[in-house]
Amino acid sequence: MSRFDPYEHVNVSLNPDGSLTRYMKLPTSPPTGEVPQIPGTPVLSKDVTLDADKKTWMRIYRPAKLPSNDNTVVRLPIILFFHAGGWIQMSLANTILHEMSNKISSDVPAILVAVDFRLAPENRLPAQYEDAIDAIHWVRNQLTDGDGDRWIRDYGDSSRCYLYGSSCGANIAFNAAMRIHDLNLAPLTVVGIILNQPFFGGKARTRSELKLATDQYFPLPVIDMLWELALPLGTDRDHRFCNPFEDIQVKEKLKSVGRCLVIGFGGDPLIDRQQKFVQMLVEQGVMVEARFDDVGFHGIDMIDTRRANAIVNFIKEFV
Q1: Can you tell me whether residue 178 is helix, strand or coil?
Q2: Which of 137, 245, 249, 301 has a Cα at 20 to 30 A from 176?
Q3: Which of 112, 85, 101 is nearest to 26 (CA)?
């Protein structure tokens, strides 16, 4: 693969100042707002600023028709969602992510708080983890503020909060769970994490990485490039952000993550690391549910509706 250009593969170019030019322009969708323009809209959504200085924001989703019991609105679980995109691209405004978020909110059902975090390499790790913590604190503050966001305050169940991420977003969800270990988030309780095809790495190659080095969708040179763009300068792929498996502090904090759902596919170069991650959770006494399919590749749920629906069903059953 000596002539392979990983930057061309993901449709970006690296600028002299270390920033990226991103050429991929995906369709976007606006939120419905508190009052939708189209009657019968099943899910409502709205955008909220998280940190104006960091240019981070969130899109919040809720079912238009809230479930009730004896005319009392049933509080819904709160799911914080961190999107895929290899650390370097995609936005919550992209239609593919917007529709995915709509479906999770509708089918689970749940209050979904999708976080538009800062992108690498302009903002390297741990910036994305910090944005996740900002979002968790924001949700917590809505619950304690009499003037807080109504969707969170009046319809969210503070005792059932989950962190959900896909690919690099799953890495963010996991590391955010590690960081809230020592925080007092009351009355918010994070009871579990949902990791869809989590993006971990390491300097030593795994069998699946070598076997699938020339994978059509997620080849090894692209994986290496993404870590080079995301990790702190001067570090390598054995840094704990990328490779948590040998970090003592990570293992000590694992028992506090609550329940964990891990989803993966056999055609993903990262599958060996994902299965090793599950093994680490089990060894530390974490209640883990693993959903691995021999057939499929990294990011299959972005293009295969059937697989995307299956993942939503896994989340529904888990929550």
Answers
A1: helix
A2: 301
A3: 85
Active-site pick, 83, 98, 239, 298: 298
Q: At what angle do helices 127-144 and 168-179 cross, to 10 degrees?
A: 60
Residue 256 is among the residues annotated as catalytic for this protein: no
> Which backbone phi and psi does 139 adopt, to 5 degrees?
-60, -45
Q: How far is CA 109 from CA 121, 129, 151, 317, in A?
A: 35, 26, 13, 11
| Catalytic annotation present for 298 | yes
Residue 2 banded pLDDT, cuts 50, 70, 90:
low
DSSP for residue 71: T
Structure confidence by residue, pLDDT tens digits, 135-179:
999 999 999 998 999 999 999 999 999 999 999 999 999 999 999
How far is 255 from 285, CA to CA, in rounded Å? 7
| Residue in 106, 166, 167, 208 annotated catalytic | 167
For 289, phi and psi rounded to 5 degrees? -115, 120
Q: Tokens 């918010």 belong to which residue?
A: 188
Single out the catalytic residue among 116, 149, 215, 268. Answer: 268
Question: Which tokens hold the place of 207?
Answer: 């069998």
* Backbone φ and ψ of 216, nearest 5°: -65, -35
CA atoms within 13 A on the CB side of 222: 23
